[in-house]
Amino acid sequence: MLEVTDLHVYYGEIHALKGISFRVAQGEIVTLLGNNGAGKTTTLRTLSGLLAPRQGDVRFEGNSLVGVAPHDVVLKGITHVPEGRRIFNRLSVVENLEMGAYTRGDSAVGQDMEQVFTIFPRLKERRSQVAGTLSGGEQQMLAIGRALMAKPRLLLLDEPSMGLAPVLVEQIFETVLAINRQGVTILLVEQNAAMALSIAGRGYVLETGRLPLEGGAQELADNPEVRRAYLGEA
User: Fold this and answer.
1) Is the dihedral of CA 33, 20, 182, 73 positive or negative?
2) Which of 1, 19, 95, 203 satisfies CB 3.0 to 4.6 Å to 91 for a cystine?
């Protein structure tokens, strides 16, 4: 479904991604692990068209995304839940969800919004509430729900557990699994390596713009280097 080949991305003269290559097959949950500054968010921003690579290719369902505008990336079936949620604070919950469907012209938007409310009942309870007054966990639910309103085939998730209480982290990851079971492929960027590896089928480790490790989720969870660097074990 997604093929990334020899991707090089720069911020000015700073070489942020140094020739990374990876793939995500249809129906998978693939996680991208790494510390702050490793290039995880840069990777997702490049996939969604917010950054342009200097070299390399990104292909989605056989078609290159290089040079494709972000709104056209959404139209092709990829949505991005950014780090920090980036909801529209002054709009209501419903208005945020409607913004997620702005590329659509079909008649099923209302039906899909009800589906989001089924996934996140808390949002239905707060449908008229101004989004900026929601709790952190509710805002994360809204950010995911807004992305689902575009009916993606590939969902890019950037640090969905950031700043959330442990009980909410478990709820968010259970929801990610449920979304995947409904047929949405997921590329998950996450610092909570233990949680990410518990739901992913495969993973990659990103270090200073390179991908030195990849493998099945259990294989990575058992890797001594991964356990030491990302799972908090000596």
Assistant:
1) positive
2) 95
Enumerate the domain spans of the chain: 1-77+155-164+184-234
Which strand ranges, in their side-by-side order, compose the sheet holding 2-11?
14-24, 2-11, 55-60, 63-64
* Angle, CA of 23, 25 and 28, to the nearest 5°: 115
pTM over cut 0.85:
yes
Contact at 8 Å (CB) between 205 and 197? no
Sign of the CA dihedral running 124, 130, 132, 133: negative
Of 131, 69, 125, which Cα lies nearest the Cα of 98? Answer: 131
Return d(Cα 121, Cα 130) in angstroms, integer.
Answer: 16
120-166 pLDDT, tens digit each: 888 999 888 898 898 888 888 889 999 988 899 999 999 888 877 78
For 96, the token pair is: 């945020």
**Which tokens hold the place of 182?**
């409904």
Question: What dihedral do alpha carbons 130, 132, 135, 136 form, nearest 10°?
Answer: 140
Residues in contact with 175: Cβ distance below 8 Å, sequence separation at least 6, in sequence order: 119, 120, 141, 144
pLDDT in tens, 60-72: 999 999 999 999 9
Q: What are the C-alpha distances in Å from 162 to residues 41, 43, 140?
A: 13, 18, 9
